[in-house]
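>> Question from a student workshop board

For tomorrow's exercise we were told to take the sequence and the ligand below, predict the bound structure, and bring the output to class. My setup keeps failing. Could a helper post the expected result so I can at least see what it should look like? The ligand is flavin mononucleotide.
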Amino acid sequence: MKHLKRLERLNRPWRAAAALLALAMIFVLAACGNGSRTPATDRGTDSGNGSTTARPDVNPSGTGDGTDATAMPSGTKTLVVYFSRTGEQYTVGVIDHGNTAIVAEIIAERTGADLWEVLPADDRYPLTYSELTDVAKKEQNENARPAYKGPAPELSEYDTVFIGAPVWWGDWPMIMYTFFEQNRDALAGKTLIPFSTHEGSGLSGFDRKLGSAVPGATIGKGLAVRGNDAQNRRDSVRSSVDGWLKDLGF
Ligand SMILES: Cc1cc2nc3c(=O)[nH]c(=O)nc-3n(C[C@H](O)[C@H](O)[C@H](O)COP(=O)(O)O)c2cc1C
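>> Workshop helper replied:
Here is what the output should look like for this input. Compare the format with yours to find the bug.
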């Protein structure tokens, strides 16, 4: 298993959305008569995430095309592919170990999987949060396919691939679509299990969108982890990951 690094801090557009989000969550939880929310993760679906992102995801169930919550990948060779940023990140300040990287490493450690990081081919992502949100937004608006540093791992060696990324504007970062599309044939026929880190949007339909991007793959039940929990509540995240992996048959 291997990993890499980078840097960042905080800004407004997101803060406003997150403040609204927090209020919405409090409201929803109160309305449900469940005033507390302790789990560090939101397993499998977007429900309960109360997303109020600037571009809210509209997949309340978090499942869809090609998804299979009962995918059972035990006894197979496993890879964890992830994208993650360091630097200034929302609610955690400047970090030198990306939130998604932390979760990816826990998954790899628990499953004995190989680990591969999707890295941009150029220096396109700023280390300040505000600038990064602008770049990410532009990529999304343009439906861009930013290049990543290859080569990708030899995917034919794997039966199961965990694929994780931060939620960016309610969606996978566009660079992940580059990865899905460039490896579509190699990924088809495999079990793909998505995971996200986020600050309120949950899984953001990662499962459904992955199923659409890679027809022919079986999509396992996803996991959503708060980025702040990944940084600051690692034991809790570890046990959530363990429970999730157990449900998946690992
Ligand atoms: C460009 C950008 C867009 C983001 N959009 C969302 C969003 O739509 N919903 C959300 O919950 N969090 C959003 N976030 C917060 C990140 O998903 C969260 O901080 C994540 O844990 C970062 O992971 P990383 O350190 O692996 O990059 C966004 C962060 C950035 C930088």
